[in-house]
Design a protein that fits this description.
The structure is a homodimer.
Chain A: H1 17-28, E1 44-46, E2 53-61, H2 72-88, E3 93-103, H3 109-126, E4 129-137, E5 142-151, E6 168-172, H4 182-185, H5 190-198, E7 202-208, H6 212-215, E8 224-228, H7 237-246, H8 250-256, E9 262-267, H9 273-283, E10 288-296
Helix pairs in contact in A: 1-3, 2-3, 2-5, 7-8
Chain lengths: 317, 317
Amino acid sequence: MHPFTKRKAEAVGALGESKLILSIRNWLGTTNPPAPFGIGDDCAVLPRPRGIQVVTVDPVIFGRHFDANASGRAVGAKLLKRNLSDVASMGARPTFAVVSLVLDRGVRTEWLRQFYLGIADAARRYGVAVVGGDVAQADGSLTASLTLLGEAGETRVLTRNGAKIGERIYVTGELGGSILGHHLRFEPRLTEGAWLAKQKAVTAMMDVSDGLAKDLWSLMPANGFPALRAEAVPISAAAKRLARKTGRPSLYHALSDGEDYELAFTLAQQADASRFERAWSKTFRTRLSCIGGIIHEAKRSVGSFDLNSVRGYEHLR
Amino acid sequence: MHPFTKRKAEAVGALGESKLILSIRNWLGTTNPPAPFGIGDDCAVLPRPRGIQVVTVDPVIFGRHFDANASGRAVGAKLLKRNLSDVASMGARPTFAVVSLVLDRGVRTEWLRQFYLGIADAARRYGVAVVGGDVAQADGSLTASLTLLGEAGETRVLTRNGAKIGERIYVTGELGGSILGHHLRFEPRLTEGAWLAKQKAVTAMMDVSDGLAKDLWSLMPANGFPALRAEAVPISAAAKRLARKTGRPSLYHALSDGEDYELAFTLAQQADASRFERAWSKTFRTRLSCIGGIIHEAKRSVGSFDLNSVRGYEHLR
């Protein structure tokens, strides 16, 4: 279903603001608690969190993060899941969300209904309450920004900052070719992230969303260089399919496509890596790959695999 | 300065994402704490709030909430202040903000700098830390959504729900004609809101942003009807100026223009209204008007001033 329609009766413009907000609350159903804890007052009122709190914001934009081929339901779920991936990468659990919607009057009401049902699906699945939002009109737009709160509970928050030279680099799942479907179907690594935050040997973590080649630099300490073993990078079947179309190496797609929503993290040098990997395998079916380690940039050999030759996704390219 | 430019070198597209994010952090200055408490990780990490927490989200959209005549600085301040007004209306104090920016590559970098300086101005003034954000590109867009957190501290949160039939209705400041400048220059009623939340006699509160004629219905209890005294409605000088242009009554503008960002609240029937008004006058210079009371809708006389004849601002009109 195309998100825009030329039939006025089928478009949100025919609803008007008050009815649209009422519809949104109906579509969100039980994931939207009654005011003042949900939509319906000037602010939503939140219970006091039990631990450290985290917050993140990410949008979905028509023509950028989805097109007319994606169902509204998948797009709504994607909006929440993009943010869930960020919360997962801190080792936190998600709590509350607010959604800011900017749309053209010609957006199809049924598409929007599917979109909010998709948010509600994912909210129920991952235990998130959608407590607030805003709807505004702008010609030609179909953009939604979701702000997600989370809490780290008793455990620590795992940041990007903490890795040292000599540590191993790991990545969950498989990378590349996300555009062929994974970007709508992925599972945010919440349980994995929470488990990793409990392992003291894990020193730093982030989610891979702009492509490993770009993102991995954020985990590097001063003078650190990511020395990767090309054969260890988990290349997805989609990256291989895409490579056949583009004529580029599948490794290129695995490293630079973006929207993988996997976790990359580092393991302390003194940790028993085999034991850690066994503990992982006992707990998760999710694939885990040790893709290399952090070396001193001075030790980087000229012939070695060079991440600088691959670029991740730049949003303003 | 027009927010869009055709000179590529002056546009954000020339910066690229990484440099743009770095620039934003510089522009925000001290209002953006270092990661992981500010921008720079997958999530921002927040200290545990001391009391009940509130959250709200509101955007500014080019062509909708501002045009090329408004300075970037005023627009940035407006974005934060719109949300501050919502926090004020709960009687809470603001704490943390995240900003989601969706923009065309052709947005002028200098305009954007002014915009973030404006956010930073207001953030410093009202004690807000800008802890996170996102930047995404969409052709033809210039939209920013800000999510604001606040906390109610020791005092209660004041919601829209709580007024009873027989109570007086008050409004702060003066209403109407906001489009002539007030919508960029207004002061969110934070100190007034916090003070009102401490007065037990105040039963319900909201901010007036879509025009009193539309907004006031949100304060009405079941079967309640807002009986206003037309002569008591505080009409701004701008509403009178606008009325001379439009040929409409200035009262119409006061009741329906929107973007007043004033507080409307109700006072318990048993409260000593004169004493309450004296206490207000001792504490604030801000004008306070008792504009009427809540009557049973059955007692509404046909000839009386009827809010239904005036409509507030509908966002999807």
